[in-house]
Each structure stands twice: as structure tokens, then as C-alpha cells.
Amino acid sequence: MNNELIKITESPRDAQQGLPFTIPVEQRAAYINEIMKAGFDVIDFGSFVSPKAVPQMADSEKVLELIDKTQSNTKLLAIVGNTRGTQDACSLEKIDMIGFPYSISNTF
């Protein structure tokens, strides 16, 4: 099997946004810095959405400032929910990929 066809992605963002509390910026960044050492192809590190909608992802830009990409080939993925989030994410040099969740559910 061609290894270039398989990409391993870790998503702390998905797990963190489901918590009933918010993890401090410094701890979020430290965790991402540690898992980058594992060699994941992509880390879904955070999102640029309204902090009213997803308070656990507030300050993703501050988290990004504390992430050290100098010793890793891991790409960082940010999730966005609208044009404003897309513009915010695109303005940040450390972000390599942007994801836009799409659902056919009326309640999502």
C-alpha cells in the first residue's frame, strides 16, 4: 500500500469542544506541542467560531501563538464555521489547512 495515500490526523479540538469546561490556553498549546512529536500528519488543533457557540475553542489564535512548529512536519488544521472564521484563520501563517464542517442535519 502506498503510504502517501494514508494520512493520520489527531483531533484534540473535537474532544476539547465537547467538554463541559474550558482548558486554559497554555495547557491546550502544551498538549498540541507534545502530540506533534508523535509524528501525526495533521492535527486539528482548534477552531475559529463564535466563543458564544463553542466557548471551549475561544482563543484559538492565542493557542496557535504558543505552538512550536519548528521541529515538526505536522500540519495544523483549523475548523471554521463561516466567512469571518475563514478570514481569521487564513490570516495566520501557522495554519496549513482549513476545514469547514458540513452537515445535512437540521439540528447541527
TrEMBL record:
InterPro entries, per the entry: Aldolase_TIM, HMGL
Keywords carried by this UniProt record: Lyase, Metal-binding
Record keyword Metal-binding present: yes
Keyword DNA repair: no
PANTHER family: HYDROXYMETHYLGLUTARYL-COA LYASE (PTHR42738)
Protein name, per record: Hydroxymethylglutaryl-CoA lyase
Originating organism: Niabella ginsengisoli
Lineage: Bacteria, Pseudomonadati, Bacteroidota, Chitinophagia, Chitinophagales
